[in-house]
Specification:
The radius of gyration is 27 Å and the shape is elongated. It is 18% helix and 31% strand. The chain folds into two domains: 76 residues, Immunoglobulin-like; 193 residues, Beta Barrel (Cyclophilin). It is built from five helices and 17 strands.
Length: 296
């Protein structure tokens, strides 16, 4: 009996060393909508190395990595399990739903505001949420303030900027296609995307990060009639009433993308708009975005 033990053991070793890796995994998402974090459970067999690809440009060689999807969409998660020169690969699809009725709390050194983002402008909404969740806006300035018009922020160059620095030209390095929605207008408190002028931007693409909050003025019937004649856009009775009682900047309608509205803290826009400014419309005392936080 003993003389057979050694060959059998050797055979088992050979079988084990020649076995192929088998890639397998499971994942669990914190929520169905963006932003969401997933945790992975690696179920692979006979593997020594791993390569994960989360379908959004992020890769990992960890055994059980976690990953955050800041934007909605369909993604394919793939896992390669490797042993020596052998590779096994498996994939799973994850669908991250768009957030609904998402709000962003904007804390400034002059008070707080809450913005409701529009689900009718998903490109702008998702991009704004991505930047908020990355902390992109924290510490930036409202670098351009015009009383009766708007307050503008989102230039990354404004963070810690020298008092004489020229601001307004910074961004994340990309633009967002325009999303004009007939019912999203420039009422007081509207959140809209800044952009470069028509001469260099005929498609009216939005800045990837710069935005403004409308301050505006109350409009009269005659003023609205004039704007209708100039723009060719006809306002409903409800829209006219909003501009007459709440105010805004209707001459910007359908030229800049509106993608949200302040639902709490309109008085903070008044306070910021009233702050003294220097040539170039930068406040003489910095108006700082202390923090932006996505809330449900």
């Amino acid at each position: 009996m003993i003389k057979y033990l050694l060959p059998i053991s050797l055979a088992l070793l050979v079988i084990t060393s020649c076995s192929k890796p088998i890639a397998s995994f499971m994942y669990q998402a914190d929520t169905d909508s963006a932003p969401t974090n997933i945790t992975t459970e690696n179920k692979s067999q006979n593997a020594e190395m791993y390569l994960w690809d989360f379908g959004d440009g992020t890769k990992s060689e960890e055994v059980n990595p976690s990953h955050t999807y800041p934007l909605s969409g369909r993604y394919v998660i793939s896992l390669e399990a490797k042993k020596n020169n052998k590779i096994s690969k498996t994939e799973k699809e994850i669908i991250v739903e768009a957030p609904k009725d998402c709000r962003v709390l904007v804390k400034t050194n002059m008070g707080d505001m809450t913005i409701l983002l529009s689900d009718e402008t998903p490109g702008h909404r998702d991009n704004f949420l991505k930047l908020v969740n990355e902390g992109f806006y924290n510490g930036l300035l409202f670098h351009r303030v015009i009383n009766g018009f708007m307050i503008q922020g989102g230039d990354p160059k404004s963070k810690g900027a020298d008092e004489n620095a020229r601001l307004g030209g910074g961004g994340p390095g990309y633009t967002i296609p325009a999303e004009f929605v007939p019912d999203l207008l420039h009422y007081k408190g509207a959140l809209a995307a800044a952009r470069t002028g028509d001469a260099v931007n005929p498609e009216k693409n939005s800045s990837g990060s710069q935005f403004y909050l409308v301050h505006g003025n109350l409009l009269t019937e005659d003023q609205l009639n004039k704007i209708e004649r100039q723009s060719g856009h006809i306002y409903t009775d409800e829209q006219r009433e909003e501009y007459k009682t709440v105010g805004g900047t209707p001459f910007l309608d359908h030229n800049y993308t509106v993608f949200g509205r302040v639902v709490e803290g309109l008085d903070i826009i008044d306070k910021i708009a009233a702050t003294p400014t220097q040539p170039g419309d930068r406040p003489t005392e910095d108006v700082i975005i202390l923090e932006m936080t996505a809330i449900k």
